[in-house]
Every structure is written in structure tokens, then in C-alpha cells.
Amino acid sequence: MGKGQRAMTTFTTQVVDAPQEPEKLAASDLFQTVPATSATLIGSAASAAPALPANPAPISAEPLPHEKPHEIKDIPAFTMVTTYLSFLLIVVLAHVEDFFGKLFMPQKYIQLRVQNGYAPMVTDFESLWHRHVYARLRDCFNRPIGSVAGGHVDLLDRVTRDYNRTFQFTGKLQNVLNLASYNYLGFAQSEGPCADKVEEAMREHGITQASTRAEAGRSKLLVETEEMVARFVGAESALIVSMGYATNALNMPALVSKGCLIISDELNHSSLVSGARLSGATIRVFRHNNTRDLEKQLRRSIAQGQPRTHRPWKKILVVVEGLYSMEGEFCNLPEIIELRRKYGFYLYVDEAHSIGALGKRGRGICDHFGVDPREVDVLMGTFTKSFGAAGGYIAGSRELIDHLRTHSYSATYAEAMSVPVLAQVSSSMRMIMGEDREHALEGQQRLDQLAINSRYFASGLRRLGFMTLGDDGSPVVPLLLFNPAKMSAFSRECLKRNIAVVVVSFPATPIITSRVRFCISASHTRADLDHALEQVSEIGDLLLLKLNKNKITEEKAS
To answer: Fewest CB atoms within 10 A around its CB: which of 324, 353, 439, 532?
Structure first.
């Protein structure tokens, strides 16, 4: 087999008694095209896949006992029916309002009509949700802050006199408990060792290189930080990108293209969806965190090949997240790794929320499950959450990263990461790794405190009878609200009690599962969490959100 080619398997009518031992293959094959012939089946990620039986046993769609089904069970029928009716009522009233509004107040809808021969930028139907749902909730979103987004944050007070169309600032500040920011390890600080390192770096290197890394933006600090990131995640090399969203959206098209297949978890982040679409590859989706469904998609895709021609796929890339930020769930990485060994696909893991927040050493989802990071072909993460900075990284084999440096738009056209952000990344990462001699224990203390806080808050909500999502130890704790009216009511009641939260609804979540997403930080004290639980309990009683209260009472009685 030539250099850069994948091991191929062919269909045979003979049933294989036992899978062959997979052979080790080059990681550089991820960005090389495999010649497609009628005899080949799939170009794989790290090993040759065993031949498939002629009549494989059907794969059950039911999840394994330890897998979480995507459907949320035990939702009271009354809650489900009233939630659907609420959304139906919203849509009906919105259409009625638009119908009469266009008749009696046409100037209000002039931007939705043809003007001087030009079609409107958006139609009335496309903007229906924004005008009639989001506009009524605008005071719950985009709240401006006036301080560091730490455990507590100052909000700029604002009022509206036209039903959230415009806002006016009052000049006052409101100090609130911050349960909304991704400040998992509490590194969002304006004082302390990291802030001091940032100041020193700016005095030595300035603010920015004012160039792309392909021209004059490749600084010594950037190279050193990339080497540190690679050591931190356990990879050979790493590429730093100045924007987290672009880390996925602009690098994935450099890995796969037309003739390749992307199999993506149905709840993957928008940046992964954008990157997959930009790549030109065929996209298929598997049920959230369901390895049985993933295997079924793999078998079908391998057997059928590309659409129309049925040629073998050049590459198959499975894309998952380490920690799903809307669900607070970990990906089933150990079983996905087993499938990777069996079928030989490439694995892309987005660790935007898990890196720095999961695992005993903060190394992310691989550290959490005890998986060798070299089992993952592409490790992606961001510095926005646990490191108190900005941007992201791609880590993997040296051949892979060298390829991205010359083929990725994020490396050739985007600006190099600025000096203050690089200094924040390197200083906070050194602290987590224990390489900062003056603060050798502080990083581990933050990791331990985050794990304690996350478990304490999530278990407190469950004891109170709330319906929550997520795995034990996740710093993201979603609490289900269901009814759309309760979403705005919950956010406003929290603000009255000096607590900042994030509420989320369709289309970011399934239509029935509107939720509030609590983000826990190592900077929160036990008093902060107890106060939040007390206030959330009062709001839960007010809005009738304790749907598991009777169940908890029965369990205690038994």
C-alpha cells in the first residue's frame, strides 16, 4: 500500500468468523485523497476495518442500557400538551396580528414589502419568529455588562418604553450572581497572576502583529503557546485560531471535500454544521449520543457508498462534541473509539466546553474517560471558556497540523491571535498544568472546586424536584422550563433576585424543551450556590416548575 493511502476492505460473500487485528495506519491520510476503485470500501482513520458479513445481523435502534436516549421521558402529559398549545397559539396570534396590521398600519410593515422594485431582504414569514417571539424577550438577552464577568458581574440597568424595540440606559449598575458566563475555572479576572503575565507580554510584544500568521504574524509567543497546547492535550502539534467559531467552520473544509462523508451528531454546534456544509462533503446525522444509531449509519454508508455512483467514500469523518453545552451531556467517547477501531473512520471531537473543565487534570473528555488522546484524529477546543481568553485550537498529528497551516483559511487569511489573548492562554494553561512555580497548586485547586460546585448545584436542583438534564460533574446544568412564557418569566424573576442566567428555546433546542442553562464556575462560593438554590426554589414554586417534586417525595418515603 502506497504512502498516504488507507487500508481498504472489500465485500465478500464469506462470513468472517472473527475480526482481523487492525493494522496501524498513518494519521497523515486524513488530508489526503484515497483513490476510489470498485474494490475498495472505505478510507479509514487509524485502522483497517474487518470485512463485513454478507448478511449482517440487524442493528437495534434502541440505545444500550447505559446510553441516554435523546427523548426526554417522564414529562407530564399536561405539560407537554400545554407547551405545544402555547407555541401554536403564538403562531396563530402572530399571523392574525400581521393580517390586521398590514391593513390598518401598513407603514409598520413597509420593510417587508417590495419597494422601488426591490424585494425585501427578509419576508414576513421568515421574520415571524423574530418579530413576535424574540422581540418580546429581548430584555432577557444581550444584557450589557460593566465589569469583569467573574463569579459576580455588574449589569448596566436599562428600561424600555416601546415593548423591547429600543432600550435606554439609566446610568445605574446592578451587581448580580453570574450563572451565565462560561468562566468555568474563574480565570476571567482583571487582577492576579494571569493579568500580570498579560501586562508583561504587552510591554514586551505590543498588542498585535497586524498580519496573518502566513505573512508576519507568526511570533515567538504564538509558536510557544501552540507547543504548550499540544503538550496539554497530548497531541504532536497544534494550530491556534483567533476565533472559536472559525476554528470549526474554516478548518473542517480543509479536511474533507466532495466525495467524503461526514456523520454528525444531531445536536452538534452551529460552527460544526457550518464547517460541514462549507466542505462540500455529504452529511448524514445520527441520533444524539446513540452509538447504535451511529453504527447503523456507518454500516449503511459503507455498504452503499457514494450516491448514484456507489463508489467508496474517499474519507469518512465522524464529528461529535466532548460536552454538549445545551444538554450538559458527555459524548460516549469510549464506545465511539471502539467503533472507530472496528470501522476505521476519522474522529473529530469538539472540546469547546470540555477542555479545562473535565478530567482530573483538566485535559478534557479524553482525560475524563481515560482515553488515549492519540485515539482521536482531530482534537478541537476553544480558550473562551475555561481559560478566560478567546479563540481556539486544532490539535493532532504533526502532518495534519502542517497541512492545515497551508490549506486552512483560518491560518492563511485570518489575523494572528493578539498578544494579550496569547498571554492569557499560556499563563492560565501553565497554571492548570502546574508549571507556574509561584502558583503550582492553584490550577488543580480550581479544577477540584469546579467539580465540587458542579455536583453540588446539580444535585441540589434535583433534590428540589426540578427536571434537569446533563451528566454528573458537568459545569453546564440545564433546567427544563417547557412553556415559552415561563422562559421570560424565569429570567426576569432571577434578575429581580440579582441572579443572571441564560434562557434558551427553539430553534436552539427542540421546540418542547425550553430551558435555563446554569453555568457553574470555580469562582462561585458555597454561599453563592446556596443563595442561588434558595432563590431558584422560590421561582420554581411560583412558576410550577418542580415537576419531579412528588417523585422525590415518594422516593424519600420509600
So the answer is: 439
